Amino acid sequence: MTATKISRIISGSPMRPITVGEPALIHEGNGLRRTTPVLNLRRVSPSEIRFETRNTQYVLKISPANRITKEQIT
User: Fold this and answer.
1) Mean pLDDT taken over the chain
2) What is the mean pLDDT of residues 34-58?
3) What is the mean pLDDT of residues 10-16?
4) What's the pLDDT score for residue 45?
5) CA–CA separation, 67 vs 74, rounded Å?
6) Integer Cα distance of 40 and 65 in angstroms
7) pLDDT of residue 55
8) How confident is the model at residue 39, as a pLDDT?
9) What is the Cα Rg of the chain in Å?
10) What share of the chain is helix, strand, coil (3-state, %, to 5)?
11) Phi, psi of 63, rounded to the nearest 5 degrees
12) 10, 61 Cβ separation under 8 angstroms
């Protein structure tokens, strides 16, 4: 039996660059989210980052005041 990954759409901003092999640390309106280590980054744009951990596929909608550049994603 194959387990299905959870999909989450979250809004916030990365506290540090999102890096494969490291947990993502995301500042959300109500606090901080620390993920399990990132397996891959699927798409990067100024307003959206898609990344995957062992159990979850994330879509991070970056707040307009906190947009980051492609160079900040490793």
Assistant:
1) 86
2) 93
3) 93
4) 87
5) 15
6) 25
7) 92
8) 97
9) 12
10) 10, 60, 30
11) -60, 140
12) yes
In this structure, the number of other CB atoms found within 10 A of the CB of residue 26 comes to 22
Q: CB of 13 within 8 A of CB of 27?
A: yes
Q: Which of 33, 18, 20, 29 is nearest to 70 (CA)?
A: 18
DSSP the chain: -PPPPEEEEEEEEESS---BTSEEEEEETTEEEEEEEEEEEEEEETTEEEEEESSEEEEEEE-GGG---GGG--
Rounded distance, CA 22 to CA 17, Å?
10
At which residue do the structure tokens 């540090």 appear? 16
Tokens at 18, concatenated: 């999102």
Report the amino acid identity of residue 8.
R
Mean pLDDT of all residues in 46-64: 92
Whether 33 shows a pLDDT value over 90: the answer reads: yes
Does the predicted TM-score (pTM) go above 0.85? no
Tell me if 12 sits within 8 A of 58, measured CB to CB: no
